[in-house]
Write a structure and sequence with these properties.
Elements (H helix, E strand, L loop, with lengths): L10 H68 L6 H19 L7 H26 L6 H85 L12 H73 L6 H29 L8 E4 H11 L1 H7 L2 E5 L3 E4 L1 H17 L7 E9 L2 E8 L31 H11 L4 E3 L7 E8 L13 E5 L1
Parallel strand pairs: 2-4
Antiparallel strand pairs: 1-3, 2-8, 4-5, 5-7, 6-7
Helix pairs in contact: 1-2, 1-3, 1-4, 3-4, 4-5, 5-6, 7-9, 9-10
Length: 519
């Protein structure tokens, strides 16, 4: 489905184009900056490492020549050879300065090298005329030689001036080149900065126009669907991926619409069935009323008249007749018991009272009080641990404990029954256990015993209707728990069931200790 204007290019191609353009421009700017930086380094190297040191050595050379001229002049004035020491030291300084300049690039063939050689030639000519006679012999130079030396030293000064002029010009040229390279580098960095900012601005504008706005529009349409109108179509626009995303969302919306329509139909059907169920429950309640009153009344009459027949005609009936009357009375009583148990089973979870917090220890006390005669007759002993508070209906939970204890009292061998009731915390539930030393239950019947009307023994061996454990299961599940037979226990029978922990601070996490109660 094409829900909007689809761009000819996908996002990946746009991103690739922008990235390549940005990379080319940045590389060009970086190349220009690199060239400017190279020129800057070259100009700085020439100025600081060549021209500047050469100028310093040229000044040292000029100073050495001046020292020589000073020594010669002192010797000419005084005639003392001690005044020639500045001349000797100046010659050494002249040699050192000339070698240093040659090491800095003032070699023959270069402008500075030629100037240096000119200075050295002029200095040698002056030294040969003005200085050599005083150093070789004891006679001082003649006045004509002194005048000649002065003229030659003026030429030395002129050569030094030429050297300094050329070096100063080279220094100024290097300074100008350094400044120019620095300006070019500054411009290059400014251009790079402007390009980066411009590219990011363009990228932001492109992302906003091509990505953000279509996504915002798509989100608004989705929000309309989620908030108000499930039938509002979702249309994608922008790059190809967003158009496909819009199509996928639209397909999902359509599936949701179909599912909601199906759910609405199911709700309508459920409402119809709920009404039918309510009518059925009303009929069942009416049936329960009839069963508890109208059906039991004939049974009571049958039992009563059979007992009257037995008392009035007891001496007139033979043994078989009395046996028939006993069978009729027993059948009527068993039918009454079965109807009462069946009514109790059907009422579990249908007419519920308000759940309250109950002390399960008091529930056990009530159950044992109801079984007081059975406990005394069987000579049973009931042991129990500390029992917690639970939330539920008092009558139903009492019935669970009463049925489980009653089963323990009913199904036992020759030894007096011993029943233990205890509970322990297991996460979010209380785990109750009812253990006895009776005849036990085989593992293969662990599920069958909780099915209504399922008996493992004949009614002549053990009395009962086969509803007790089924009722326990229904009551426990109604309270959010579960009940089962612990098949790992072999010393009799052990039933376990769970009930949710009451959400309050007073609830304890463990139940240490136990106490025994002899019944």
């Amino acid at each position: 489905m094409n829900g909007g204007a689809e761009s000819s290019w996908p996002i990946r191609r746009w991103v690739t184009l922008i990235a390549m353009t940005e990379a080319v421009l940045l590389l060009a700017a970086l190349a220009g900056g690199g060239v400017a930086l190279t020129n800057l380094n070259g100009a700085r190297t020439r100025l600081l490492d060549e021209t500047g040191p050469q100028l310093l050595q040229a000044n040292a050379l000029a100073q050495s020549l001046l020292n020589q001229e000073t020594g010669i002049r002192g010797y000419l004035l005084t005639g003392q050879r001690d005044f020639l020491q500045p001349y000797i030291d100046g010659r050494q300084a002249q040699t050192d300065a000339a070698e240093a300049m040659r090491g800095l690039g003032a070699t023959p063939g270069t402008e500075t090298g030629n100037d240096l050689e000119g200075v050295l030639r002029a200095a040698k000519a002056w030294q040969d005329v003005a200085a050599a006679p005083g150093l070789v012999g004891s006679d001082r130079p003649s006045p004509s030689q002194a005048d000649r030396g002065k003229t030659l030293f003026d030429q030395v000064r002129a050569s030094l001036a030429t050297l300094n002029a050329h070096l100063s010009a080279a220094r100024d040229t290097g300074r100008d080149a350094l400044n120019g390279a620095s300006q070019v580098l500054t411009v290059a960095l400014a251009v790079i900065t402007v390009l980066v900012v411009l590219l990011f601005v363009l990228l932001y504008l492109w992302l906003r126009r091509t990505i953000t706005r279509p996504i915002t529009r798509l989100a608004e349409e989705v929000r309309v669907v989620s908030d108000d109108d499930l039938h509002h179509p979702v249309l994608g626009s922008g790059p190809r991926e967003l158009v496909k995303l819009g199509a996928d969302v639209e397909a999902m919306r359509q599936r949701i619409v179909d599912e909601v329509s199906a759910l609405e139909r199911a709700h309508a059907l459920l409402d119809v069935r709920t009404q039918a169920l309510e009518r059925s429950n009303s009929d069942l309640e009416q049936f329960a009323y009839v069963a508890s009153h109208d059906l039991q009344e004939p049974l009571r009459k049958v039992a009563s008249f059979c007992q009257l027949l037995e008392r009035r005609y007891k001496r007139q009936l033979d043994e078989r007749g009395e046996q028939y009357i006993a069978f009729a009375v027993d059948g009527a009583k068993r039918m009454q018991s079965l109807i009462n148990d069946l009514l109790s089973f059907s009422r579990v979870g249908r007419r519920t009272g308000e759940p309250v917090v109950l002390d399960s220890g008091r529930l056990l006390d009530q159950a044992l009080a109801n079984l007081a005669a059975v406990l005394e007759e069987a000579g049973a002993r009931v042991e129990r641990g500390e029992l917690p508070e639970v939330r539920g209906e008092e009558s139903l939970l009492t019935a669970v404990l009463q049925n489980l204890v009653n089963n323990a009292l009913k199904f036992h061998d020759d030894e007096p029954p011993v029943v233990r009731v205890e509970a322990e915390r297991d996460g979010a539930v209380w785990l109750f256990s009812v253990t006895d030393n009776g005849i036990g239950i085989e593992e293969q019947y662990a599920d069958r015993i909780f099915v209504i009307f399922q008996r493992l023994h004949s009614k002549t061996a053990y009395a009962g209707t086969g509803i007790g454990l089924a009722m326990c299961r229904r009551i426990v599940e109604h309270h959010g728990g579960r009940i089962w037979l612990d098949t790992a226990y072999t010393g009799g029978s052990r039933f376990r069931f769970t009930l949710p922990v009451v959400a309050q601070k007073s609830t304890v996490d463990s139940l240490p200790g136990s106490r025994k109660e002899d019944a």
